[in-house]
Amino acid sequence: MFANAPTWTTARIDLLKSHFEAGLSCREIAASIGVSRNAVIGKLSRLRLTRETTGDEPPPNRPAKERRPKPGPRRQYEMLRVVYREKDPADDAAVVSEHRCSLFELNQERCRWPISTPGAEDFCFCGNTPLKGMPYCRGHTRLAYRPGSRQRVARG
Fold first, then answer.
1. How far is CA 106 from the centre of its chain?
2. How many Å apart are CA 23 and CA 25, to the nearest integer?
3. Mind listing the pLDDT tens digit for each residue in 3-34?
4. Cα separations (Å) of 156 from 21, 70, 151, 153?
5. Distance between terminal CA atoms of the chain?
6. Residue 128 and residue 94: Cα distance in Å, rounded?
7. Contacts of range 120-125, beta carbons closer than 8 Å, 24 or more positions apart
8. 0.90 exceeded by the pTM?
9. pLDDT score of 131
C-alpha cells in the first residue's frame, strides 16, 4: 500500500465484518487484515459492532488474592504513632550509639543512621538495635520522623 492510501478500504471493512461475525478475536482480525489491533477495535466501535453477551453468564472466576498488610505509608504511620505514644524522658536526650559499625558490618539488625560525614576517617553507622520494621533505633527514628516537620509556608 502507498503511504497516502486509506487504511479502511471497502474490501478491508467487508473482511473486518466477516471475520467479526465468524467470532475471530481482534488480534486475529488485525493479523488477517494487516492493521493494528487498536485499529480493529476503533473501527468496530465506529461501526457500532459489538459481541452479544447474555446476562446469564457470570463473570469469569478469578482467584481471591491473599490479604496481607501493605508495607506502605499507612503501616509506617502506625508504627511511628506507637513510638511517639510511648514517650520516654530519655528520648529527649542525645542518642548514644554504643554499637557503631562500618558499612561492611551493617545489616538488618543494626541502626543505619550515619554518623559523621561520608568519606571522613571517623565515618560509621549507629549500629544500635533498630525498631521492628524500621531502619533506625528508637532515638534516631524520633530524629528522622518528626511529627509536624512538614509545615506549610504562608504565601503573601
1. 27
2. 6
3. 677 889 999 999 999 999 999 999 999 999 99
4. 65, 40, 16, 10
5. 63
6. 14
7. 124/100, 125/100, 125/101
8. no
9. 87
Q: What is the pLDDT of residue 119?
A: 85
Q: List own/partner pairs for 143-148 with CB under 8 A and 24 or more apart.
A: 143/95, 143/113, 144/113, 145/80, 147/80, 147/84
Task: Indicate the burial class of 136 (C-beta count within 10 angstroms; 0-12, 13-18, 19 or more).
Answer: buried
81: burial class by Cβ within 10 Å (0-12, 13-18, 19+)? exposed
Q: Is 119 left (phi over 0), alpha (psi -120 to 50) or beta?
A: left
Single-letter code of the amino acid located at 82: V
What is the residue-wise DSSP string for 86-121? S--GGGGSPPP-TT-B-GGG--TTS---EES-TTST
